[in-house]
């Protein structure tokens, strides 16, 4: 297990390196001269040349990449062209908000979705089951930004129950987390339903019932623990999509997270901020998938890592 | 995940089933009492008709030219949905929005399908070291948030309808490559393919005549569902300000622009919003029904 963890951690390196190459090349092809942007509109040609030299932008592409990787390895993500503060500072400021939002969204999806799916699996073709099917299509069809605005107009503007924008106490978190998590409530309930239905057909479930185990115990202990693995897999696969959704939800609710930070930087062509945030987004996805892989081992002792 | 929910028709029993069902899609919906899906299909046809005929009812100037003297006039006989904050006819903008949304969605899905199916088929068919490398590359790209890939493409290509289309297409290519490689790999070892190969049929002809026609139904199902997703992602990007620049009537950017009117003039926001949800919903429902029509085994999956 330890061996496997270490090997997976080592695998992180080539993946992050690959991502850094892609991001570096994309940034290189962005139209506009970063040195000109950094120097401002009324800089002289000498100023621009000086800045280009300072940033190493006059060197060959390969050298630029090596400088860039070396800097990142030592924790230097460059400076923002707009605020002249280190990019890493901006990431450190906005990352916790993004993580808070995505985890809350996922948690909401699991807490609501999984029980709904289990109940639907216990009464297939019942009222809940068929309404769940309709709800699932609706859940993946309503764009997050539209849902967010509708929820905001109902719960903040009309009823005044919850704050419309910003980050603060748990009241601020409810609307954004719900907006982000709703499509995944549908995903998780559908998945929980179908895996539970498969598991409930197994012999050991019949044996448990025959032994006289109370039915809530059969469902929650025998069945759910075996249905959990596909759920964790999808959790890992959907995490990246959830982060993508967070970029939009953060904009709707003026949530001070990394997605908002990234979009503002793109609008201002603030290259180092874009580069840094995209790298951190990619690293987050890779790390979450690593954690999911490791969780398998705890969930199912039959899985060995060789 | 998508590949496991869709079984490709590869056994002889499936082929028999395919031959038996020669009824049309509409008759399939009626016979099986799929009224919900049938109405979604009708809604979809209406939306497509609206998108095609938009220039007949409203010229481009009337939906883009700013006329502040007519700003935010309520619904009337002259303009059925009223006007937006810039005094432009809201119905006209929603109809033109359908045209732009569908153009972007259809062309992005077409580009992504073309690349995805050919690369996926080649990877599944040759299945060598290079194919393995391509597949690993696609795996790591799938791990990357799709919205982020699209955002990066737009950052490079600028704000326009074309770059929005490319952004959606590029961000979905890895999904298609992975999706189509599997079925092709399975087909490659089927008797009729091996038999053709043994009598000296070349690779290109084999792919074109024997393999690609057999994944045709998969392409149709995947395309319908992909259209829904393309619209979802495209409108999201436009909402963020990364779509075609104003005054282009795009549903996502219309919603973003009318945000300050959310409580005062909600219909300015609700009109494009409802059109958007209705379109995505219809594509998803029709896609589901199409899957059941083409591949009946997956119905209870």
Question: Can you put this structure into words, describing what you see?
Answer:
- Chain A contains 12 helices and no strands.
- With 306 residues, chain A is mostly helical.
- In chain A, α7 crosses α8 (170-200), α7 crosses α10 (215-252) and α11 runs antiparallel to α12.
- Chain B has 301 residues and is mostly helical.
- Helix content of chain B is 72%, strand content 0%.
- Chain B is built from 14 helices and no strands.
- Chain B has helices at residues 2-5, 12-20, 25-31, 35-57, 60-64, 90-126, 129-143, 146-157, 161-188, 191-198, 203-211, 216-239, 251-257, 266-294.
- In chain B, α6 packs parallel to α14.
- Chain B is elongated and about 75 Å long.
- In chain B, 43% of the residues are buried.
- Classes of the chains: A mainly alpha (306), B mainly alpha (301).
- The interface between A and B is large, with 45 and 39 residues.
- Taking Cα atoms only, what radius of gyration of chain B do you get, to the nearest Å? 22 Å
Number of helices of chain B: 14
Number of helices of chain A: 12
**Termini gap of chain A:** 9 Å
Parts with pLDDT < 50 across at least 5 consecutive residues of chain A: none
Largest beta-sheet characterization of chain B: none
Provide the residue-averaged pLDDT of chain A.
82
- Profile the largest sheet of chain A: none
Mean pLDDT of chain B: 82
Distance between the termini of chain B: 12 Å
Largest interface: A-B, 45 and 39 residues
Sequence of secondary-structure elements of chain A: HHHHHHHHHHHH
Oligomerization:
heterodimer
| Topology, number of strands of chain A | 0
Question: What is the helix fraction of residues of chain A, given as a range?
Answer: over 70%
Strand portion of chain A, in percent? under 5%
Query: Which range best describes the helical content of chain B: under 10%, 10-25%, 25-40%, 40-55%, 55-70% or over 70%?
Result: over 70%
- The gross shape of chain A turns out to be globular
Give the radius of gyration of chain A.
24 Å
Count of DSSP strands of chain B: 0
